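Support case: D-xylitol-5-phosphate complex. Customer-provided input:
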Amino acid sequence: MVTTPLEPDGKILILPSLLACDFARLAEEVARIEAAGADMLHVDVMDGHFVPNLTFGPPLVKCLFDVATTPLDVHLMIEEPLRYAQAFLDAGAHYLTIHAEAAEVKDDIAGAISKLRELGAPKIGLAFNPDTPLDRILPHLENLDMVLVMSIFPGFGGQAFMGEVLTNVRAIRDAGFKGRLEMDGGLDENTIPLCAEAGADTLVSGSALFRQPDMAKGIAHFRQLGLEARAKGGFA
Ligand code: DX5
Ligand code: ZN
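Agent response - structure generated as follows:
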């Protein structure tokens, strides 16, 4: 059963990316991650076209939903997110995030967001890659629950953080966006302070978190680093 959805509330959320977990023990990994204090589970869906990698489909998301007690944050790195949105919603996605560059989205971002609303998505996110101009995103802020600023080119875990995207994070907050501002890619103890200081509050971590000898301590440490940096950045 999924607990009450989290709302923008000044919290720093830490989201382990399941891409880095042991796929042979998914249910155990979910239990371990949740016991360690994860706020949501980040689920990376890849189609082998939008990104050169393949991962989970709706049936697997449904299996995760059945064993999870925290909400599922489903990151769709697929060319046809609208074609599959209903299936992912039926599978239990709580946040459904589409990419601004996806074939089905790029020519009508507003239409894609409306379609997800019509389908009853509980929360809608819009992700964008490091080389996508911010002005493609800004007109849609008021219709979004979350913006995902990618700090890598999506497709694989374990890549180096691209600090140049931090100006976009700050600019999205400066534009008045009060929703969840997520970052994904290369987040670790060195880069989380930079993200939170710029205004990000929803932090995805794969390889760095799964490298921690003690996941609970790792999550608590990442959250604390985020809270300290957030205050330094001038955010409540
Ligand atoms: C990559 C995914 C990420 C990935 C991050 O395309 O969107 O969620 O798991 O992994 P790390 O934290 O290792 O960069
Ligand atoms: Zn992701």
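The beta strands are 13-16, 41-46, 72-77, 93-99, 123-128, 146-150, 180-184, 202-205.

Case will auto-close in a few days if no follow-up is received.
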